Amino acid sequence: MTPTPGPRGLPHAVAEAFAGPHIDVELARAHAHARERLFGEPAAPVRIGRFIILERIGQGAMGVVFAAYDPELDRKVAIKVLIERDDAGAEASRLAMEARAMARLSHPNVVHVYEVGEHSRRLFIAMEFVRGVNLRQWLTVPRTLQERLGTCLQAARGLAAAHAAGLIHRDFKPENIIVGDDGITRVLDFGLAKPTEVASEPGLNSIASADLIVTASVHGTPGYIAPEVLRGAPASARSDKFSLAVTIWEALAGRLPFDGSTTEARLASTLRGRIPDDAPLPPAWIERVLRRELEGAGVATVDELIAALARDPGPVRRRAAIGLFATIALAGAYFSGSRPREDPPEAAAPCTGAAETFDRTWAAADRTHATRHLAELGDYGKVVAPRVETAVERFASEWIEGHRDACMARERGELTDDILERRMTCLERHRTGLATLREVIDTAESQELPAVMLAAEGLPRPSDCANLDRLEQQGAAIPVDAQPLAYEIGRAYLAFRSGRTLTLPTRVAELITAAREVGHPPLLAKLLYLDGQLKIEASDYSGAKTSLREATMVALAASEEVLALQAWSYRVWVQAVAGNSTDFPSTESIEIIEALAQRHEDDPVVLGVYTNLGSAANALGQRAEGRRILEHGTELGRRMGDRATLTLPALLSALAFGIDSDLEEKQRAHDRALTAWTEVAGAEHPRTLSARLARVDVSDDDRWSLVELQEIESTAIRLHPHATPIFVRLDPRVA
């Protein structure tokens, strides 16, 4: 199109609209704005189909993208209007056909297409509005290897789902991957690659080689195009897989495998089919997988490539034996939004889109596939899979019901805008936590099964988001600019609970720096608390006390009293267990924390506070005081029922270890702890085996103890082989 100078006297907005490529929608909006400014006439909304245009948010080679509002289904959408092209006939028909096929595809890692239509003889596509940045922008911030690979694997799952539906992307690259503020990665623009992108560099019309000529009819972006496509073959699932491998290589190594200073050099490098010796390399085990793909000897499908990349041999060599026989259970951690995207099927039926919204995170079929993966991880995987499935389905049911109930309360006008926003943010935060658990499950290894199961059992209860009293007591809602950080914190907590702590300390340190820059104290306090727990796990007790002290002070200043109590009580526990006579916590500290905790006894998190305080008192030799605190916490846990799923067994174990006066009473206490762990984690879980071992330790029946020890050893050898060497040190009766 030929740029047209702006008419003299019109506002700058109109002149800007006339400059450069544009479509009639932009001119209509500019004219409406001008009339409103000049004549005071109310600006009528500009529409594409039924969608009301809000603002222009981007432009690419294929078209212009607008943010728009769908008045029928009350949701914000993105509208891509394709620019006119010379080949508008067959190519436009293909694009329309593929866009409509995309509308039938529903997968959490693919931007959902709602509608395809025509506006002023141009094709438009109405799709899911996603807040976030593309992969290239996301990678400008330092990320761990696990984060970069995990994000790429999410995109790969979206590509695999499209291939299963018979769709080819044609231009898979970082710019067509969106990393949402909700932590979910999505692929967009399937089938919309511009055929002339290869020839976009001035003077480049074809590339000659010894046996081929590359012309400007190739789909894709130089550097990401498969060699066979450059040679004239049509784009295919195989060529998409090549582009995926290039994208992952670039995300992990920082540069394209087939690089060059010009477009021609990049294409020539790709055609040679050999990665240059000076190319930057991703980690060795990933390099081996990707090199086979890029040099023509890879696997058949994207699903197989995902499976190969998910098999990291490092954790197998690095991970220590499972912490099977810990004697004191420590307090758990809780983890931490934009308003959920509601997508009800019909405007006449409000509040019916909760199930579809949830399925966008983890559809039922994908949940089944994930639990099948767990079941394939050996004998213990077969035990864990159904328990994880039950926990996830319970979460799904509660979340859908909670979302529907919140929506109906809004329809009835029962909630203030502030409380509604907090309730919906709570639900969305929980859903993001589930999305992170999905990533963990999809790449889980056998050694991680015990932690994965407890992470699933410890998923937050969406029903708690309906507790209006607690919502009102919370601090101010997280500001928009801090919400991405809140999501990252949620992912970090879930990684901690899932046992993925190898690179987590480095990531938490980065997030602490980011939290200080953002200036949101509650988020900083949560990170400092997590940092303290990680330092305890690494036996860095001095560092743990420093982090937990700051977490306490920051949380108190931010009126996050429950979090402050968690951090403070944990610090007291560290002082009691790993301190010295000059560092022991004072009796007054324990009394003050307990007094403050009594104000929050409807919150299951407080049970962890009582576990810490009672265990600290026991470690200091104050057995009567420790027992009183732990018994009080135990009674609270029983009243809470299933809301105390993971915290009550830990309390009971701590209580049993603190009894030393009456052998029969001590045995009964250990029996109660064993029953609780069996109900929560199953008879085969390491925590349950630990409780069985503790019961053996207080037995006065040597014959029964020997049989029980042999059964524990047999179970551990069969289901937890990496932990069995510890039995040599357990008891002379084993040998």
Brief digest:
The chain is of the alpha+beta class. The protein contains 29 helices and eleven strands. Among the domains are: 12-131, Phosphorylase Kinase, domain 1, CATH 3.30.200.20; 134-312, Transferase(Phosphotransferase) domain 1 (Transferase(Phosphotransferase), domain 1).
CATH homology group of the domain at 134-312: Transferase(Phosphotransferase) domain 1
Structural class based on helices, strands and sheet pairing: alpha+beta
* Proportion in helices: 40-55%
Oligomer: single chain
* Average residue pLDDT: 78
Main pleated sheet: 6 strands, antiparallel
Give the helix tally: 29
**Which segments are poorly predicted (pLDDT under 50) over 5 or more consecutive residues?**
1-23, 193-217, 314-348, 724-735
Explained architecture:
- Helix content is 54%, strand content 7%.
- With 735 residues, it is α+β, with helices and mostly antiparallel strands.
- Among the domains are: 12-131, 2-Layer Sandwich (Phosphorylase Kinase, domain 1), CATH 3.30.200.20; 134-312, Orthogonal Bundle (Transferase(Phosphotransferase), domain 1).
- The protein has a 6-stranded antiparallel sheet, covered by helices on one side. The chain has a 3-stranded antiparallel sheet with strand order 7-8-9.
- Helix 15 packs across helix 18 and helix 27 (663-681) runs antiparallel to helix 28 (686-697).
- The protein starts with 11 loop residues before the first helix and ends in a 16-residue tail after the last helix.
